[in-house]
Structures are given as C-alpha cells and as structure tokens.
Amino acid sequence: MTAHWTHGRSTRHQGAVCGADDGPRTRISDEPHLVTCPDCPNAAEIETIPDDATTGDPNVIDMLRDARNGHTRKISGVVVDATTAHAILTVYNAATPKTKAKIAGLPLTVMTSLAWNILRADSEREGPR
Ligand SMILES: [Zn+2]
Q1: pTM confidence score
Q2: 112 close to 103: Cβ distance less than 8 angstroms
Q3: Is it the case that residue 97 has pLDDT exceeding 80?
Q4: Would residue 1 count as lying in a domain?
Q5: CA-to-CA distance for 61 and 40, rounded, in angstroms?
Q6: Cβ-proximal residues to 44 (8 Å cutoff; 6+ apart), any chain
Q7: What is d(CA 16, CA 14) in angstroms, rounded to the nearest whole number?
Q8: How close is the Cα of 18 to the center of ligand 1, in Å?
Q9: Is the pLDDT assigned to residue 21 strictly greater than 90?
Q10: How far is the CA of 39 from the centre of ligand 1 (A)?
C-alpha cells in the first residue's frame, strides 16, 4: 500500500513544496490545514529563506565556506549543510585553478554529487583503515 500525502503548493516551483511527485495522483492543497505530508511544513519554511547565492555566482564558494562553518546558507533554493559543504570544499581545494572555476560554475546538486563521487572513489581506493 502506498501512502498518499496531501502536499502544500510551492511558491518557488511547480508542484509540492517538498518536491514530492507521485505523478497525477499527487494531491496538492493551497489550504495549509489540509496538508498531511510530514516534509512539507519544513520545506515551506526553507522556501521562505532567501537564496544566498545562485548557480554561477562568484560568491558560491564563500557561501559554502560559511555553510561549512555552521552558518545556514542557501544556494539556488537548496539549504547546504556543513557536511555537504565540507565535501564540496575538500574536492574544490584539491583541484587545479581551471577545475576550480569549472566546479564553482556547476549547479549545487551537480557539485554535491561530484564531490561525493570523488570522495567515495578515494576512500575505496585507500581501502578500510
Ligand atoms: Zn510534501
């Protein structure tokens, strides 16, 4: 059995606040008291935080440093946690200037998966410690 939540309608993008998409069966309501999805209230709060940077912003790396140091930073609609910021910066700091420029211009989601892929590949190569 699949649970069907009623989601809040997003103000920033099409569909549910939390990004859930169960296809045409997704129930979305403009009335907050009808929302049953556990992720939507939090997501709605996050939506109200203004972006600190967007994709391609020259400040994006500074914002990641702030996030790594424990400050809430939001980039292109995504709140960056310290662990993710640390992972991206680890890869960024090890890169050549040319690659650094390339990384800094990536959308945050791509930056994040790139960082984790590289770090995971590294730890597999080193083996268990
Ligand atoms: Zn939801």
Answers
A1: 0.69
A2: no
A3: yes
A4: no
A5: 29
A6: 8, 17
A7: 7
A8: 4
A9: no
A10: 5
